[in-house]
Amino acid sequence: xxxxxxxxxxxxxxxxxxxxxxxxxxxxxxxxxxxxxxxxxxxxxxxxxxxxxxxxxxxxxxxxxxxxxxxxxxxxxxxxxxxxxxxxxxxxxxxxxxxxxxxxxxxxxxxxxxxxxx
Length: 118
Fold this sequence. Notes:
Layout: H1 2-6, H2 9-12, H3 24-56, H4 58-79, H5 94-114
Helix pairs in contact: 3-4, 3-5, 4-5
């Protein structure tokens, strides 16, 4: 739960990353912020690559997911103020953070494929 709770650092400061167990003030905002961010990046993928995914399928969806996850990394960890960063960097190793971004890219690709207009 700690990485999800860490996202609530937007509200509670970096101490939120020290919360190990599910709590209403930390976990609920963390889940809502992460879900909202996931929907935002899915919208970005659809706006930038949706038509190409519709036409070309799996390979384009995979590239679109990877590109969107890379864009999310740049925005979330290099462009926004520290207080608005996801907070996962407070609890996860760099390797785990990159793995989570890879999983995000794969999930975005799958979502793009499932929402294709045939």
